[in-house]
Structures are given as structure tokens and as C-alpha cells.
UniProtKB/TrEMBL annotation:
SUPFAM superfamilies the UniProt entry points to: Carbon-nitrogen hydrolase
Source taxon at top rank: Bacteria
Signal peptide: none
Single GO term (MF): hydrolase activity
Entry similarity comment: Belongs to the carbon-nitrogen hydrolase superfamily. NIT1/NIT2 family.
This protein's name: Carbon-nitrogen family hydrolase
Species per Swiss-Prot/TrEMBL record: Streptomyces silvisoli
CN hydrolase domain boundaries: 1-242
Length: 265
């Protein structure tokens, strides 16, 4: 299975429509990959709170249309990062990630459960999701679990994803550089405790005055880093063996020894 993480530079001097077209073109260039992953809120910027309402869109809005077409052109599964979703004309905003099938159809969406900001910013402006979301990918024959940025700090969400069958944990993010060490540490921790691959894709550059960590990373079920990006815009491509997840869990069956919560059957 080949996965490509597109670490996008969310430049403040680039119009949202222009960035959308540029990113769609990058996705189309990934023909031959099985799964392509984009960062959190790349159309507008994860910290550009003042622009959230302006660029909010429905699930079938311009980002979904353009990125769905790009997934279809490249014939890839596309985790298109997240958008600011407005669920209805006067409804709440959500930080919503979109997963497209190779035919370009929206296959799943995930509304971020843990909102960042401590009663400010995203936490004050957006509603919280309440559903654990997984998807079975045809072709690579593996199950992915979806999470977004701040979710990475909450291991109980990843336990639920594992219990729902997740073998690859896909995390889109707009993680700040000043906490970049946490990003790398937590990505490896989630892989080790879940005995699953972690594909964590972040943004590059500076937006809304916040320097981004970059350092998108792919971690295997033993916690080994298979590939890691730098701090600029970059395409990170790696070949994975989905069967390694079950082999790891069989060789070192720690998940069966869980005491708190429901053990995996």
C-alpha cells in the first residue's frame, strides 16, 4: 500500500480559491498512490479564526467538489484534510474532515471531537463532533480511523478506533511549531499503544501569525518512524504493509491484556 502525505504551506498571501486549485493539482499528481492525506483546515488555516465563518461551506461545497474530482482523476482514496463546515444556513460550524473514494464520491466525514482553544478560538466557535469514524478501504484492504489535530492528545479516542477495527490511524493537523516536540512524541505513542500505523499530516509555513510545525510523519505499529517531513511544503510518500498490523498484534498481544474498558475480543 502506498500512502502520500501532502504537507501544504498555508501562505497568507495565497487566496483560498487559488490554494484549493493548487492542492487539487497536487492530488492529481499522486496517481499510483492508494491513499493521499491532506492537513487540517488547509483552505483557510487552522488558526485563522477570523475567517472561519467567511469560508465555511457545506459538505458538498467548493472544496468537496474540486477535491472529489481530483481523487477521481488520480484514482486514489483521498483524506482531503478538513474544512470549516456549516451544516445548515444558520447551523453551527464544525471542523470536518472528508474522505473520498477513488470514484470521487464522499465516502465518510468526521467532525472533530476535541476542539482546541480552552474556551477560545476553535473551542468557542465550533461545535464538537460526537462520532468515532472508521472506513474500510478497498484495494489496500485495510481499515483506517480518522482523527484531527488536538484529538492526538486523547488516547481514549484511539482505543475506540482500534476497537472499531482501525489498523491505520490517519490524523490531519495544523500543529504549531512551539509544541512540535509533542506532535512527534504523541504520534509515536498512539502507534505503539494501538499497535497500528499512524499517518499524521500537518501544515507548513506561518498562518494567522502562528508558525506551523510541519514534520508530517508515518509511524509503524512498533513505533518506528518510517518517514518524516521537514518544516516546508513537502510530499511524503511511503510504502506500507497493512498485514504487519495483525502480525504485530499476534506477536506481542498487549491489546488482549487490557483491564480497563472492554478488551478487544
Amino acid at each position: 500500500m502506498r500512502a502520500s502525505l501532502l504537507q501544504i504551506d498555508v501562505r497568507p498571501d495565497e487566496q483560498v480559491a487559488d490554494r484549493r486549485s493548487r492542492v487539487a493539482a497536487l492530488v492529481r499528481e499522486q496517481a499510483g498512490a492508494d491513499l493521499v492525506v491532506l492537513p487540517e483546515l488547509w483552505p483557510v488555516g487552522a488558526f485563522a479564526y477570523q475567517d472561519f465563518a467567511t469560508y465555511a461551506e457545506p459538505l458538498d461545497g467548493p472544496t468537496a467538489r474540486e477535491l472529489g474530482a481530483a481523487a477521481r482523476a488520480a484514482r486514489v482514496w483521498l483524506h482531503a484534510g478538513s474544512i470549516v463546515e456549516r451544516s445548515a444556513a444558520d447551523g453551527p460550524l464544525y471542523n470536518t474532515s472528508l474522505l473520498f473514494a477513488p470514484d470521487g464520491q464522499l465516502h465518510r466525514f468526521y467532525r472533530k471531537i476535541h476542539r482546541f482553544g480552552f474556551d477560545q478560538g476553535e473551542a468557542a466557535m465550533m461545535a464538537a463532533g460526537d462520532e468515532i469514524v472508521t472506513a474500510r478501504l478497498s484495494g489496500p484492504q485495510t481499515t483506517i480511523g480518522l482523527a484531527t489535530c488536538y484529538d492526538l492528545r486523547f488516547p481514549e479516542q484511539f482505543r475506540l478506533l482500534v476497537d472499531a477495527g482501525a489498523q491505520l490511524l490517519v490524523i490531519c493537523a495544523g500543529w504549531p511549531e512551539r509544541r512540535g516536540a509533542h506532535w512527534s512524541l504523541l504520534a509515536r505513542a498512539r502507534a505503539v499503544e494501538s499497535q497500528a500505523y499512524v499517518l499524521a499530516c500537518g501544515t507548513a509555513g506561518t498562518h494567522a501569525g502562528v508558525q506551523q510545525a510541519g514534520r508530517s510523519v508515518v509511524v509503524d505499529p512498533w513505533g518506528e518512524v518510517l518517514a518524516e517531513a521537514g518544516t516546508g511544503e513537502e510530499v511524503l510518500t511511503v510504502d506500507l504493509d497493512p498485514s504487519r498490523v495483525e502480525k504485530t498484534r499476534a506477536e506481542f498481544p498487549a491489546l488482549r491484556d487490557r483491564v480497563l474498558g472492554l478488551p478487544k475480543p
